[in-house]
Amino acid sequence: MTDTLTLDSSTALVLIDLQNGILSLPTAKPSSEILRNGIALAEAFRARKLPVVLVKVAWSPDGGDLPTTDVDRPGPATAPPAAFSEIPAELAVLGDVVVTKRHWGAFTGTELDLQLRRRGIHRIVLGGISTSVGVESTARTAWEHSYSLVFAEDATADTDAASHAHSFGKIFPRIGRVSTTAEIIAALSA
What we know:
Radius of gyration: 16 Å
Low-confidence stretches: none
Number of strands: 6
Number of helices: 6
Shape: globular
């Protein structure tokens, strides 16, 4: 049995790829539910004046910064339209930190670590889409940077249910705490 979840002023919420283009993908759990729980978490963090970091993936219009590695299942060959990367209005709030990434993980080639450390953040509550890609890549790097992690399982989804189950069953318990939106909000209120 693990200790009761406690969250303090050194905690930030980081939501991965809750943007129009990703939210329109077919996910194992409805993306509307993931967005709703992400909004609830963001509102709870904002109410306590804790940082909310919204991470989105986007590329230059010419596609020059798209990943070009030789893989069996490549990503997009051209940059999606700008609307793909827009964060839904019901989630975005002036004052949130917005980080644009061009790879799976939110730390690679971005200012995420700088934004968190300058705010005195040592613990990250993490959610978003997709569990086994953007969320897991970000989580692994965060753990390697010595951030404590809390995973909001009901604010996280994957396009593949088995991949989601693997991340939450095998990977995340080894590098952080698995929790729910309600439990996280209760911990913020304690």
